[in-house]
Specification:
5 helices; mainly alpha; 6% strand
């Protein structure tokens, strides 16, 4: 087993064993202070672990309650890389640049984290592009709730018609917080 050396303000410690050293600023031998600090930190960490266990149980119950609220969302299995690859292909078909694609990645990451199941609990906007109302995406296909390709196609058409490019949509989103 290798010993790890840690240097803190002129104090040399060997992992697991304190070495007697003098603090360069005060000239005080601090080996005793190190062992006392270890005892205190052990007591504190034991107290913290008990608190963490108690709060973890509370958080778990809250999470279960939240899951019940979102029954209307669909559970499409998805792969972000696959979705972004499809979007990249369409961005090139629109004749947009790599900068436009990068802006699209940022924009839709901010909107939905590229999650086709995303639903904004305040507004009801849904899908990768956060269409509001959600049913607008039906113009691109009736499977808009379950097909990420339909969502991406609709989102890119929306961006092209309203902003001209993903870069312009991203700039608008940065200024206003929405697109």
């Amino acid at each position: 087993m290798k010993k790890i050396l840690i240097i803190l303000t002129g104090v040399l410690l060997v992992y697991g064993e304190p070495v007697i050293a003098k603090n360069e600023l005060t000239g005080i031998t601090i080996a005793k202070k190190i062992s006392k600090a270890k005892k205190k930190s052990t007591k504190k960490s034991a107290k913290k672990s008990v608190k963490v266990k108690k709060t973890t149980k509370k958080k778990t119950t809250k999470k279960k309650a939240k899951k019940k609220v979102y029954k209307r969302t669909t559970n499409i299995k998805y792969n972000v890389g696959e979705i972004q690859g499809y979007a990249h292909q369409l961005v090139r078909e629109y004749g947009w640049s790599e900068d436009d694609y990068n802006a699209l990645v940022l924009l839709w990451y901010r909107e939905s984290s590229w999650n086709p199941n995303a639903v904004n609990k305040k507004s009801g906007a849904c899908g990768i592009p956060q269409s509001l109302p959600c049913r607008k995406m039906a113009s691109e296909g009736s499977d808009y709730r379950t097909n990420y390709k339909t969502q991406v196609r609709w989102g890119l058409k929306y961006i092209a018609n309203r902003y001209g490019s993903p870069t312009n949509a991203w700039k608008h989103s940065q200024r206003t917080g929405w697109y």
